[in-house]
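Handoff note, outgoing to incoming analyst
You'll be picking up this chain. Sequence as last confirmed:
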Amino acid sequence: MLRLALLFLGFLTLVGLIWHIGPSRILAAAAGFGPLALLLILLPSLLMYALEALGWRITLGRHAASVTFWRLFAIRTAGELVNMTTPTAYAGGEPLKAYLLKPHGVPIVDGLSSVVTAKTTMTI
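Most recent structure output, in case you need it:
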């Protein structure tokens, strides 16, 4: 319940900031950045996601060959999106990653093992 209340409070704060600053001013500032600045802003996150996808690929062992890097990157991103946008935290996104590996021939048990191993090593 507290988590949901904090999520709602964060959402209200974001809406209040957008209203106070003005959507048109925010869009004008973003447009002033240009594509190169946007790339420079996003590059560290993209690099981190790519390195974490590579690390996760290593934990897949013999199943790594059945999943392309870009598919693994997309699955990892989908799982992180669920982790960040729902109140389930890691209880939603991590099992989703293992489930999304299943169509690529990775059994659920092996997928879950790789997710837990990758998350643990990334945390350390």
